[in-house]
Structures are given as structure tokens and as C-alpha cells.
Amino acid sequence: MAPSSPSRVAATLREEILSGVLAPGERLRQEDIAARFGASRQPVRDALRLLEGDGLVTLVANSGAWVSKLSESECYEAYQVRERLEPLLISQSIPHLTASQLKRLAELVTQIENTKDIESFLRLDREFHLLSYAGAAPGMLREFVERIWNTTQHYRRAFAKLSNLQNSEVTHMEHKLILDGILRKDSAAAQQALESHIRRTRVTLAEHKELFS
Amino acid sequence: MAPSSPSRVAATLREEILSGVLAPGERLRQEDIAARFGASRQPVRDALRLLEGDGLVTLVANSGAWVSKLSESECYEAYQVRERLEPLLISQSIPHLTASQLKRLAELVTQIENTKDIESFLRLDREFHLLSYAGAAPGMLREFVERIWNTTQHYRRAFAKLSNLQNSEVTHMEHKLILDGILRKDSAAAQQALESHIRRTRVTLAEHKELFS
DNA sequence: TTGCCCCAGAATGTATCCAATAGCGTTTTT
DNA sequence: AAAAACGCTATTGGATACATTCTGGGGCAA
Fold this sequence. Notes:
The structure is a homodimer.
Chain A: H1 6-18, E1 27-28, H2 30-37, H3 41-54, E2 57-60, E3 64-67, H4 72-93, H5 99-114, H6 118-132, H7 140-163, H8 169-183, H9 187-206
Chain B binds a DNA duplex through α3.
């Protein structure tokens, strides 16, 4: 583990935060992380700054770093923003998706439908949505959307565990509608289906404030 | 200038970038900045990372830091995002604006109308819009919007200089419509007026690709 | 008993030094 | 003469050592 550049440290920590190994609110001590990676505290500081930019970590001067935590209203806001940004993003993506990407998207919809495992569901669902945006040019819009997905990942997991993937028939239908819009290159249809999908999720999530103890 | 914390350095650099002292594409050498602030390179590195998070500075590994630059399409995208986010933000802000803030907003509209100075116009216009969002809770949405305002500041200046504030009658009308919606607590009206305002600006800007040589 | 203050420990922030890398000019070879 | 390879220099990246700041606990006084 010789080249322990900040981006490498950040990537590992990002993985651990997204996978739930590191829970929101958990403290991140620079020295511990530095020891784990066999590096000094300097690259760790840089890595934490990078993650702060992703919204995954919250830094407080002279105090320390914590895994970011969302309040119920912040999570609600995140979904409101998703509702406005992701339809725009998918409309920019659709014209440029490749044949292999379209094929993978179709695969994902059926895989999502057949999985009973929560972690698999989360991974596949994330891949489906983010892949549907892969045709869009890299830029601010994609960064914003990815940042929202990152910061809300933990709460999606908590909600999935809570509901245990019950009543997911509607979700599957929505995914099919989105896919249909994509395959038919009907941006407007895909945008509307996606907007409905996100809005319904937002409303459902708002009914479970217990996720934000 | 004893306590040269990263945030202090970052704040000063931010000011200089926004005010145009530092132009997009300009290189930022760590040592120069460190010398200017009488600090070591360490806090400067942190400051640059902070500014990278704001989108104002672009860092390249083992190479250096430059003031961020937007392409024409990136700027266009920024306005598309504004068009979707700022109406949402203003709707969240309107219910919580204080009387003194409302008074200031009204003042600003007339001041903007009367100024002939470009720098004043930019400053007042920025204050008007950002103040109209001041009632919204701090959070992701406000951060996104402020980031967009920061990264596009230079191009607003360039455009203002180009047009020399001519044909700004429409702008003033739009500001009045937005203000009217705010004062009447008519969120829907304010959202629509704001959306039109941003969309028109976007289209107008797209007609001047020469700003992005 | 309670509130405040002070002190000690730990963690973060800063400075200096050394290593690694990229850019660029020169030189050498074909 | 042109192109490629070598080496130099300037700048950034990383590690270690030191200063500063925050937090928690204990003791003293009201």
C-alpha cells in the first residue's frame, strides 16, 4: 500500500460510508485513519476535505470530522431537489446512451424485480438510476445528483430494511415506465415517470420520521 | 495577520475571484499565496481544497491549481439548473422573510434600476436574489444555488460589460414581478416570475458565445 | 448540592523539511 | 535537420515535529 494518495483514502472511506460500515454521526479521527492506511495525517486531511465536498463528511474547525447526518427535513429537501434535477439530467442523457448501456438498463430492471436481498436491491437500484444518467456530459448537474445519492444512501438503506422490500410492486412498475421512456427515446415520458417515482418515494419516506431518531 | 486559518485565506481568495481580480484560468501557486498571507503552504493547500469544494478552483494532482473556468455548455447547464432550483428555493424562503428583509428587497429593486455602474449592478443584483432566498433553511439546496452563483459570477460580469446594461428594462420588470410575488406571499407567482427571469437570461446568454473564447 | 473555574489530556492546526513528479530545454542520435 | 531520450529545475505531495485549541473531569467555593 505504497501510494496512499488522498483520493485513494477518500475512495475507501466513501465506500465504507456508502456501504454502511461507517454510520452517520460517527466520528472520524485523523490519526486512526492515518494509521489504518499507513500514511501520515496530511493525506488524510486532504481526503476528508474531498469527502466534505461530496457531502459525506462534515468538518468542524478545531474539533474534528464526522460522517454526515441528515435531519428529516434535510432528507425531504434532498428528495425535492432530486425531483427537479434528475428529470433534467435524464433528458440530457437519453440521446447519448449506448446500445450496451440500454441493454444493461433492461437487465437491471428485471434483476431488481427478482432480488429479495436488501443490499443487492440497493446496489442494483443505484446502478440503474446512475447508469440512466451516464449519457449526460460530466458537469455540475451530474455532480449534484451524485452528491445527493451519496448523502441519502444511508437513509435509503434504513428505509429498505424497515419496509423489507414489501409493496415494491409500484417501484418495479415505475422502473419499467422509466426504462420504456428511455428505450423509446421519449425524454418527456421518461422525465415524467422519473419525477413521479421520486415524488412518491419522498412522500413515502416522509411517513417514516422514525428513521431520523 | 497572525491567525491565517484556511477559511480566512479561502475567504480572501474567494473575494478576489468573485470580484474579478483573479480571472478564470489563472494559475494559483501555493508558495505565492502563502507568502502573501505570511503563512506556510499547509493552510493554503487546505484553502484551495475548500475553494475546490465551492467550484471556484480546479485542482490537478501534481500539477497545480487554477481559477475554475466554465465552457459555454457548462454555463448553459448552470442556468438550466438555476431555473429548476431557485424557484423551489424562493418558495421555501418567502414564508420566513422578515419585515426588514422585505424592505431591503424593495430598496434593492429601485437601486438596481437607477444604477449605471456595472460593478454596482452586479453587487446589487446578487444581493437581491440571494437575499430573496435568505428565509430558506440553510442546507443543500442553498449551498447548490450559492455555488452556481459563485461559479457563474465572472460570466455575468462579462455579459454585463458586453451589453453595458442596455435593454435592462425587461430585467427591471422581472425583478418587480418577483418582488411583487414575494411581498404578496404569493409563492407560485414569485416562482414563475423567477423561472422566466432565469430562462430569459439563459437564452440571452446563449446568443453570446463569444464570451467563452 | 450545585455551579463555576481551572487544569490536564487529546486531537486538530501549523510549520519546516524531504521526496516525488511533471514540464521543459538540451543534447544526442538517426 | 528532425525526433527522441536524457537530465535539470521548479512546483507540488508527504512526513515529522511543534503549537494551539477544544473537551472532560475534578476541585473549590458559594
